[in-house]
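Fold sample X.
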Amino acid sequence: MNFYYGAIVFAHVVSAVISVGPLFLLLPLIRRLRTAKAEAEDIYLAFIRVIIRLVMHSGHVLVVTGILLILFGPWPWNTSWIILTIGVMLLSGFFLATGFSSVLKRFHEPSNDREAVINKLQRTAWVYIGLLMVMLWLMVQKPAVW
């Protein structure tokens, strides 16, 4: 049982790294998108979509391994840091599903201001990174809030 728990912890940590790391690639891509010519825009947007998909799918592994860690680990479901992590996770999942896709869909609409859409994309990336950092802090520090 100890070996399996360690393997689940490892998978959980790797999926957390894959969930957070690629998001930092968004920032230089968004910066380059600001000055990109029309031909290059679609390439940058495709890279952004791939990053979002990678983050989303590694998030699925993160959730499954997190559930397994709670089932087999020493912490009960009603521990404050677990409840808060689940809350932030649900919020970030909703944000990932709605925030990025709505901004990316608006990019090529002729009625939208390109610069405003890029600014919204950058804000969305930073907010999502912030949510993931809060979750990471909760999982590492395991604070007893109540």
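Fold sample Y, listed below.
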Amino acid sequence: MPEWTDDLTIPLPPGRTVAELVDLVLRETLLGTSGDELDQQLVTEFGLSHEDAELARDRSLGGLVRAATGNSRNQPDRGKDPMAWESFERGRRDPSLVARIYPRLG
């Protein structure tokens, strides 16, 4: 059973940031990296468990989906869902990011 917190945060190694994690997820998704390969990169580069890597990918991409709505009420809570918040903000600032990852939503 995954040990995710109720607030959708995961522990990151010292010196690593949510922004760096989201950078990796978005960059590799744009390159067409498979979910399994991306999860393995998160395990290797951030020392995450496989379950946390899946959560990180899901929340990072989920924030973009929320940004695609154009509704600021869909903004995730920064403290409770920091990966989704980070990617939501990026998608809000750059709608082309949403369109490149999710063409049908852009």
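Sample Y note: The mean pLDDT is 93.
Also: DSSP finds five helices and no strands in the chain.
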